[in-house]
């Protein structure tokens, strides 16, 4: 199974995930580029779906469906661990409510398309107001192998690294993280997110000390996550 990233708008990232001659388009804002890529490789875009329903992620749906014979898969109707079959390979849906109530991620062999749930070096805004749900969604992601490649819905890397450095100037490996940034193929490894991303470091002693200094609740894991989201 392969993944191809497409940039559109100011910083949005959409994806074609394909195996053999079949592909699913995720957040297909770069319609012309995606269809051209598929045609050049004799790939049929058979399904179109989204990580969530914010307009900057769904803006290409209608045009993509018009240009292909693809079937639309409504992300609101996915079940956790649902399978999308591409030839003899499986793309797995992971439901991750938090940013909105209907966010999902898509897991391949060694990668995860995270939309606005998990960005490279930060996390999405909790527009759902359900920080408990967001915490449990991120815990699902954090349980994946550290070698999992994280492909997010936006390229916010430089801004997010600056924020991470401001929160904790001694963040481990932050300079190496930025050195590995490639605007032509934006991704990180989960193991690096666990070291660098301040909103996943809720068990880190340094982050706990910062919360204690600000007198935020930090007795439990979920309290620390919620406090980090509120403090920073």
Describe the protein in words:
The chain has 232 residues and is α+β, with helices and mostly antiparallel strands. The protein has two domains: 196 residues, 4-Layer Sandwich (Metallo-beta-lactamase, Chain A), CATH 3.60.15.10; 31 residues, no CATH class. Helices cover 33% and strands 25% of the residues. The strands form three sheets. Strands 6-7-8-9-12-13 form a six-stranded mixed beta sheet. It has a five-stranded mixed beta sheet with strand order 1-2-3-4-5. The mean pLDDT is 97.
Quick description:
By secondary structure, this protein is an alpha+beta fold. The chain is built from 9 helices and 13 strands. It folds into 2 domains: 196 residues, Ribonuclease Z/Hydroxyacylglutathione hydrolase-like (Metallo-beta-lactamase, Chain A, 4-Layer Sandwich), CATH 3.60.15.10; 31 residues, no CATH class.
Per CATH, which architecture of the largest domain?
A: 4-Layer Sandwich
Label the structural class: alpha+beta
Q: What is the arithmetic mean of pLDDT?
A: 97
> Helix count?
9
- Unreliable segments (pLDDT under 50, ≥5 consecutive)? none
Distance between the termini: 37 Å
Per CATH, the class of the largest domain reads: Alpha Beta
How many domains? The number is 2
Task: Write out the CATH superfamily name of the largest domain.
Answer: Ribonuclease Z/Hydroxyacylglutathione hydrolase-like
Overall, the morphology is: elongated
Strand sequence of the main sheet, in spatial order? 6-7-8-9-12-13
| Helical fraction | 25-40%
């Amino acid at each position: 199974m392969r993944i191809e990233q497409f940039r559109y708008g100011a910083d949005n990232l959409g994806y074609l995930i394909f195996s053999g001659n079949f592909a699913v388009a995720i957040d297909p804002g770069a319609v012309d580029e995606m269809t051209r890529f598929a045609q050049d490789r004799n790939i049929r875009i058979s399904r179109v779906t989204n990580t969530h329903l914010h307009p900057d992620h769904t803006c290409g749906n209608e045009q993509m469906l018009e240009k292909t014979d693809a079937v639309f898969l409504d992300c609101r109707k996915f079940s956790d661990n649902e399978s999308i079959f591409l030839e003899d390979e499986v793309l797995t849906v992971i439901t991750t409510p938090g940013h909105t109530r209907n966010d999902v991620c898509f897991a391949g062999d060694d990668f995860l398309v995270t939309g606005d749930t998990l960005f490279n070096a930060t996390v999405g805004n909790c527009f759902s107001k359900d920080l408990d749900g967001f915490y449990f969604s991120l815990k699902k992601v954090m349980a994946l192998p550290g070698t999992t490649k994280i492909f997010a819905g936006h390229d916010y890397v430089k801004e997010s690294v600056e924020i991470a450095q401001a929160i904790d100037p001694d963040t481990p490996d932050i300079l190496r993280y930025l050195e590995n940034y490639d605007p032509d193929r934006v991704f990180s490894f989960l193991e690096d997110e666990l070291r660098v991303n301040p909103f996943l470091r809720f068990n880190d002693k340094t982050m706990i000390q910062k919360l204690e200094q600000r007198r935020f609740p930090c007795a439990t894991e979920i309290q620390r996550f919620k406090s980090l989201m509120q403090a920073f």
